[in-house]
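Case study B.
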Amino acid sequence: MNLTGILSYFIFFLTFAGIYAVMALALNMQRGFAGLFNIGIAGFWAVGSYTTAILTTEPSANYLGGFNLPIIIGLLGAGLISAFLALLVGIPTLRLREDYLGITTIGIAEIIRLIFTNEAWLSYGVRGISGIPKPLRDFAGKYYNIVFLIIVLTVIAVFYYLSEKGIHSPWGRVLRAIREDEEVAKAAGKNVFRYRMEALVFGAFMMGVGGALYAHFTGFVSPEAFKPMQTTFIVWIMLIIGGSGNNFGVLIGSLITWGIWTGTEFITGMLPAAYTTQAATLRVILIGVFLEIVLLNMPDGLFPEKKYNKN
Amino acid sequence: MKLKSKAAILFLVFVMILGSAGVLAQETVKIGTVLPITGGLASYGQVSRNGTLLAQKQINENGGLLDGLELELINVDTQTQAQVGVDAAQRLVNINNVPAIVGAMSSGITVPIVESVTTPNEVVQISQSATTPVLTDIEDDGYFFRTVPSDALQGIVAGDLAADQGYDSISIIYVNNDYGQGLNDAIIDQFEKRGGEVAESIAFEPSKVSYRSELMNAAEGNPDALVVIAYTDDGGITIIRQALENGFFDEFVFTDGLKAPEIAEGIEGYLEGMYGTTPTSLPGGKGPQLFKEMYMEEYGESTPKPYIDTAYDAVFVLALAIEKAGAAEGPAIKEAVNEILDPDGETVNINEWAKAKQLIAEGKTINYEGASGPVYFDEVGDRAGAIGIWQVQDGDIVEVDVVVQ
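Model:
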């Protein structure tokens, strides 16, 4: 145990938390601002990851592509395809009331996972795509993780800025109005469907980029990585803990939730080796308990939505 | 919500992240194990962990490593989730400073760890159970090894086994992941080569309540037998029972994931005499027998699942390499793994750590007759192996034969 080690892990930890933060910002756009009940994050995440994998890997006979394109194209492509998917999903479903949208999105996420599992020509099926290139690897050398963290932070900064800009604009005001009372917004002559669609598509774009970051970071995607627990519900926990409707809050929420998720192992790891099994199970219980404590004490999250002034 | 309690929560999390591993500053040699203790593969991970602990005990009771240092195994739980597993492995490397890692269980977690954690950090990784062909060609700078043979081998033996039973046609039902897919392809190849006909080959999604529709499809054309490629926890047991209940099949061939007495519990009579395959030891050497006794003595049961012996060997091989390298550092261990194992070297059994230490001190190479048979790696770090054939006898699993590739 030494300081460089701690620092290295901290960088790695921040990168992972940062990728989740991108997802949480995206969900905040959809849920926090527009009130859209999207529990299909795993689907958009998977689409983002696979899109960039297909676009940026070396040509392969095993799956579609790869097209060996620059990573920046991969990131943008991931966002665009994910946004396009959201458009397709949104057309039939955004007319539904919110719980129905939830049911639809979780179904769609599962369909996407099964497509990537079974359509081997597209994704090499269950074997997954490996060798996804790492940005600036040669340039960065052993400081690679720091470089990647900077990339993730840049993406967060851009999305954070855009989200903040959006929510403080008249556009954001309409979104909040729709969330609070759809009928009132309609009565004021706003096209509710269009605004909701914009929030869904913009959020999905962010999720796609987040998924792409994940793919480049781990260098490998397979359908196994897109189970709902680790890719959908954890993001919801981050949103709720941080504070739904507060961009800064969800960033902190991501950090704390991922910290609890991984940090609990440090506590249970102190138990003797003979209790490994119990320790691991205890850890899962601890995760639940910590999250309960936060939620019970702060039902609106650590940083509740700000009060917006009238002008 | 006061600022103070917000700060308190933030502080608590921070302390949890940082204020951890440095509790005991005692000097040890550390090896990390990345296993699923909870989640879908928990029952495999937990017993594999036992295998690694047995190896640790053997080593520490017989002189330890290097100058009498204790071997310390630090286990992290993957929760059978890729994201958690990758983070856990990174933590082992950065916080615990392990020069080598045993794991992970499934290929879907092993591959991202090789790509993003062990290779870039120059840490040696040995998986006891990841069988995907992807790992043969992966760019690992030589840091990845596995003590389990690749899928392809078992598929050939299972295909032969089905043909030897006199089946003219079979159906295959396989768990829809890289493991199932790889085995399925290899079995079809081999069975057709032997002149048989594969009626249906059906992938199933794990952990469903009912597999009747999959089984109905598999039974089309009345094949003679069903090859079940599954794990016990993820639907294998359900499939066998529903196939019998509904009269779809009464003859089966199993693969390694089902090598557990649970499959026959309550239906011993129906499964009596059915065969299965599993990656296993090369014949010769007392390793497997010794390991069974050792496991029985420590845990009071016979080895209940596959990959316990390969986990033992992974730790033992790493220990040999550390001893040979004279230092617990990744690059040195990598070189030493390739140097120390030698079919023509002096034979070392799994309970002879002291002898191994002695031989290494004398500069000799070692023919390690491991718990899963003699352990050698080819130039890409894959294990040369054999496939065992087992049978259900009186509701128990009995190994009856071994086929060398």
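Chain A touches chain B through 59 residues (CB under 8 Å). The remaining cases will be described in the next quarterly update.
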